[in-house]
Amino acid sequence: MSKSLFEKVWDAHTVRQLSNGQTQLLIGTHLIHEVTSPQAFGMLRDLGLKVKYPNRTFATVDHIVPTLSQVEPFADPLAQEMINALRQNCEEFGVTFFDIGTGHQGIVHVVGPEQGITQPGTTIACGDSHTATHGAFGAIAFGIGTTQIRDLLATQTMAMSKLKVRRINVEGELPPGVYAKDVILHIIKLLGAKGGIGYAYEYGGSVFDNFSMEERMTVCNMSIEGGARCGYVNPDEKTFEYLKGRPYCPKGDEWDAAVERWKAVASDPGCHYDDIVNIDAADIAPSVTWGISPDHGVFVTENIPDPAQESDPDKRESIEEALEYMKLPAGAPIAGTPVDVCFIGSCTNGRLSDFREAAKFLKGHHVAESVKAIAVPGSQVVDQLCKNEGIDQVFRDAGFEWREAGCSMCLAMNPDKLIGDQLCASSSNRNFKGRQGSPTGRTILMSPVMVAAAAVTGKISDAREVFQVAETAAV
Amino acid sequence: MALETITTVTGKGVYVPGSDIDTDRIIPARFMKCVTFDGLGEYLFYDVRHHEDGSLKAHPLNDPKHAGATILISGVNFGCGSSREHAPQALNKAGFKAVIAQSFAEIFFGNCGTLGMPCVAATAEDIEKLGTAVRENPDLEITIDVEKNRVFYGDENFTVHLPDSARDAFLSARWDPIGELLEGESEIEATAGALPYMAR
Question: Measured between CA atoms, how close is A83 to chain B, in angstroms?
Fold first, then answer.
């Protein structure tokens, strides 16, 4: 019988059924970071337990790391305490830690793939909802809570109910200036922030076939913003090519055997999906959010919604609440909205190709005087790769600050925060109230190239016009 | 590890209406710089309860009439966003033992379950009616009957939804799965042994 990748991976990792009907699922790869793991190690100690598979547990530090300087001690003693706790826990329990001094530190969802820890057909979990990123490789990857981290540390398994699978096909060719970020913002807008509850999303179609691994990661990363617990793309030659030679990947004969297994794990033709959604790539344009939920999206050419035009009273109320918080005029064009801060980075868009693409257009432009712009590589490796190509210099010449690796302004657990009601054009993944560190701070999500356009014009702008994208793409 | 069975939750309620109340709102990230969950309760819904100068805003959770509430009542997609267990922990540390809402985000729902906090779903109409009753009479006693899938208050009652697996876990005192997971040791090793990537 033909099966989807999700079913194959689920079956291969099923340990047994639990008494309440849930599955005891083996999680082959456990990624941890400083924010959600210390309490789990505390629980482990209280129970007198050890880490069952320290060889399958990997740690990095990302959320609390300052990006102006990673030199310790950090100015914030709480941040220092958290990194100290992680160091101690990793040492005591024998866990590999990509610490600041290793040259491999970075955002956990950037580090896993670049080290080759993320592999097709595996199960991955991390105490972070953007763990679905790893699905780009055909892994089934879940964000989990701290008690589940304890479960994984102690048993390498967790209790879970099986998900349904929704196939999302995006067919055709994306117009110039339309990026992976626009694809996922469009999908979330269409299906809603809770549309994916109970589902794993399988992304496919010619757009995904043509996407690079980094573009696939951008889409899978935001699956949770659409409510889906995980999202994945079937592995193919691009996947194998990306992984070959990475530190934690098999070598020699073992590599060939692994590739055969990885090919076999892809969804079988004709397999059952619980739901199928078809999207035409030609319908997608550069996208931005206008509200306080990732499904509050419009194309940059469109207007901010007007609650007066909304017949559903719940939706009307939700638009009113969002516009009141965002201080945006109902019904006006979103383009032209002044921005105060521009942020390129995060586990969604903090990889080499993100900076490379934005740098391509930033050359010869300068950040508007009213704007503070920061570029934050997702890992120390990304930082080095960008420096090798001179990308950091392009950003600096354009008036961006080039920072050190970390989560930075995506979630404000470090010094990078909005002040007051500053409005931020951001390549991150969440526009919740207060997300970027100020209780009244405002976030508009978009692709890195759109952030670059906002930075140079000082307002939300159509990057295709600012940078004459069609002409540049044709050269 | 002996756990208690959870068949009912009884207590005062507080109504915090709204859709898509996300985990950043339940516990803003800046309060997550901690290595234990102790003390998170005081930062519950911090930014919607406080002005920027730290003074209190009008909010149901700031209303002394609702002090001691143990059941939170809310809208659609409650707990969406981050996987941070800090959100259910903050609710828990603030004294909450259960949530009644129209629907829940999945990771949040699971996190609450492992803390022994039932999250039961009800219709918009039943929630609005209960919420209004709680506003009018903050001391109203509400009982969530996990076994019968019903909520009782005053002379009223309504049906709630809780997935079978979650209900069974509460009723059989297995809502924290660690004990049962540990019992599967030989099966865990057999499953891991069949997966080549587990060896490295």
Answer: 10
Structural domain B8-199, CATH architecture: Alpha-Beta Barrel (3.20)
Q: Alpha-carbon Rg of chain A, whole angstroms?
A: 22
Which residues numbered 415-434 in A keep a CB inside 8 Å of some CB on B? Answer: 417, 430, 432-434
Give the ipTM of the model, two decimals please: 0.95
Across A98-122, average pLDDT: 98
From the list A55, A81, A156, which residue is nearest B188 (CB)?
A: A156
Calculate mean pLDDT across residues A195-209.
97
What residues contact residue A137 under an 8 Å CB cut-off, 6+ apart?
A113, A118, A119, A120, A213, A232, A233, A235, A239, A242, A243
Q: Please check whether the domain covering A5-275 is classified as CATH 3.40.50.790.
A: no
Contact A34, A78 (CB under 8 A): no
| CB-count burial class (<10 Å; 0-12, 13-18, 19+) for B62 | middle
Residue A475 is predicted with a pLDDT of: 45
- Domain borders along chain A are 5-275, 287-474
Would you identify the CATH topology of the domain A287-474? Aconitase; domain 3 (3.30.499)
B18/A36 CB distance under 8 A: no
Could you give the strand order of the β-sheet that contains A157-160, starting from the edge strand earlier in sequence?
A14-17, A23-26, A157-160
Q: Which residues contact A135 (CB under 8 A, 6 or more apart)?
A: A141, A220, A223, A230, A231, A232, A233
Q: What is the mean pLDDT of chain A?
A: 97
The pairing of beta strand A164-171 with beta strand B150-153: unpaired
Report how far residue A29's alpha carbon sits from residue A54's, in angstroms, rounded to the nearest whole number. Answer: 10
